Amino acid sequence: MTPAFLSIRDLRQTYGSFVAVDDVSLEIPEGEFLTFLGPSGSGKSTTLYALAGFNEPTSGDILLKGASILATPSHKRNIGMVFQRYTLFPHLNVRENVAFPLRVRGQAEREIAARVDQMLALVQLDAFADRMPGNLSGGQQQRVALARALAYDPPVLLMDEPLSALDKKLREEIQIEIRRIHRETGVTILYVTHDQEEALRLSDRIAVFNRGRIEQVGSGRDLYHNPATRFVAGFIGDSNFLDTAEVAVSGDRGRVVFPDGTAMGDLPVHRSAPGGGATAAQVMVRPQSLRLAAAGLPVRVLDVTFLGDTSTVQFRTGWGQEIWMRAGAEEIAGLSPDATAHLGWTAGESHLFV
Amino acid sequence: MLLTYRHLGGLGVALWAVTILVCLFLLVPIVFIAALSFGSSQWLVFPPPSWTLRWYRELAADPRWLEAALTSAKVGLLSAALAVLLALMASFALVRGRFRGRGLLRALFLTPMVLPVIVFAVAIYALFLRVGLNGTLVGFVLAHTVLAFPFAVIPIVNSLEGFDKSIEDAAVLCGASPLQAKLKITLPAIRIGLFSAAVFAFLISWDEVVVAIFMASPDLQTLPVRIWGALRQDLSPVIAAASTILVAFTLLVMAAAALLRRRISR
User: Fold this and answer.
1) What is the pLDDT, as a whole number, of residue A275?
2) Please, what's the b/e burial string for B111-123 (b: 16 or more CB within 10 A of its CB; e: otherwise)?
3) Searching chain A, which residue's CA lies closest to the CA of residue B172?
4) Do A94 and A144 meet the contact criterion of CB atoms below 8 Å apart?
5) Are residues B25 and B113 in the same domain?
6) Which of A15-29, A148-162, A244-258, B105-119 has the lowest mean pLDDT?
7) Contacts of B187 in chain A (CB under 8 A)
């Protein structure tokens, strides 16, 4: 097997007794857009910083094209990075900011000028070449930062929550732009975010981080339809977790009895990773997988909320758990608080975590 | 607002009066000195019987005055340069460093500002006596560097604290070595702080007299020391002329600094 373009192997980062990154391994092919998704403190930024060379891993290795980069200091790694905060050099104009990495590499003036023009065209800021960073909007500043990070043709581009300071509309605009730039340049991108929608929108693959570990790596579809762990199921998309009273597993299918006696069979089974905490078995079902049915799980309506395109309904099960459903207005037309109903769903759309 | 000027009534008038009195208190001695330096009276009679430039001519005719002014400028510039350099390194440690006793070190760096000058003067005189630095340019510069240091540390620490370290990190990832990144990105970004530090440090040295008296020798005197010495010999309007030049130069430095600062901050 040929080594992957970029390999992270058993990367571990501890601070005293705190384990920030816990044996993370990833193989990343050239040209991939991979997102590290996870809550704050899950180790995703720490992993990215190890790639940038800003912190020295406690153990493990990072290989680029088969060679370890850990011994190479940051400024010789030739890696591009866009930071969470605005990092344009405040005393240099846009053109000089983008030219900076080329100047420190001692390139000829003419080459620099041509490359800077090309990069500014890429991020569509040609008209702003002579502006000072202080006279740019946040979105423009991050686009210049992107142009600067790509100017020297780095094999890998790191992006550490670059859009978190921007408002939602602008964020979506720049997400589209980042996708386009990824397509046009073919650069390998490692992107850190805590925003699942951003991750789904941008990435080829997503690595879900939790407590310093990677819970699952896969495409957005994979993670959504086949979550490997409870955490992934809860983090990607909306979800309901239902307690169970009895569980019988045979092969990769399981049969459960809910605390109120309702039974359900043929559920896809997911085993929690060893050491993942021995909690009781739960059934996960998405709010949009739930249907009103003639027979099924008996519930009582708590509240109905109209949200335009869809509505949500809050229910309480016989054993007191809350569960919610998302549905079109006509489907739930007859429901009002305190009414009783039965909920059903296709077994294959739910997941049994044991 | 409860305490707007408009609602003060009679109290407003009193405030004005106090303000004017304070300004007069600060300015009148300087104005008097300047006026007397142009007066014809040998005995500093006020108001002057007539006006003359005689004292300035005498001042110019005596090479010791020019020498003292040059010494002052030399000591001031060297102390300022040294203080800014040291303060820059100290500021990186104070702002970026993560070590025990950082707060204590910061307080220590500011002690020359609060320590009674005479105590410091005697101490450094005693020390320099052992190493033979009294009466030398090096001794002068070192002593004034210590005095100017806290005034250089404060603006540099402030501007470095306002500078996002990520910007320097970005420069490093762009391919600049950590030193290059500091020289090409961080220093230009905090240039206003550096500039303020240099101006403060220079002015601290420029009009310092207590430590300077201890450091001075008959051959090496700064302008304030020369004024002090001349005053003790005889009260001549030449001293008023020298003082006026001292004040005028200080004002000039401050005005130039204000203009320059506005230009570099754009």
Assistant:
1) 44
2) ebeeeeeeebbee
3) A75
4) yes
5) no
6) A244-258
7) none
- What are A's interface residues with B at a Cβ cutoff of 8 A? 52, 54, 73-81, 83-91, 100-101, 104-105, 132, 145, 148-149, 152
Domains of chain A: 6-231 (3.40.50.300), 240-353 (2.40.50.140)
Q: Is residue B58 part of a domain?
A: no
**Tens of pLDDT along B77-114?**
999 999 999 999 999 999 999 899 999 999 999 999 99
- State whether B120 and B155 are in the same domain: yes
B28 touches chain A (CB under 8 A): no
- For residue range A65-74, what is the model confidence (pLDDT) as tens digits? 999 999 999 9
Give me the number of domains chain B comprises.
Answer: 2
- Whether residue B31 sits in one domain with residue B73: no
Mean pLDDT of A322-336: 86
Q: How far is B105 from chain A (nearest CA, A)?
A: 26
Q: Would the pTM count as exceeding 0.80?
A: yes
Residue entry with tokens 């500011």: B110
Answer yes or no: do B170 and B258 share one domain: yes
Range(s) of the domain holding residue B67: 63-265
Task: Show residues of chain A in contact with B174, CB under 8 Å.
Answer: 75, 100-101, 104, 148-149, 152
Q: Are B237 and B42 in contact (CB under 8 A)?
A: yes
Q: Does residue B51 belong to any structural domain of this protein?
A: no
**B179: in domain:** yes
Question: pLDDT exceeding 90 applies to what percent of chain A?
Answer: 68
pLDDT, tens digit (0-9, with 9 covering 90-100), for A2-19: 668 999 999 999 998 899
B47 prior amide bond cis, ω within 30: yes
Instruction: For residue B190, give the nearest of A136, A91, A98 by alpha carbon.
Output: A91
Instruction: Tell me the C-alpha distance between B185 and A6, whole Å.
Output: 30
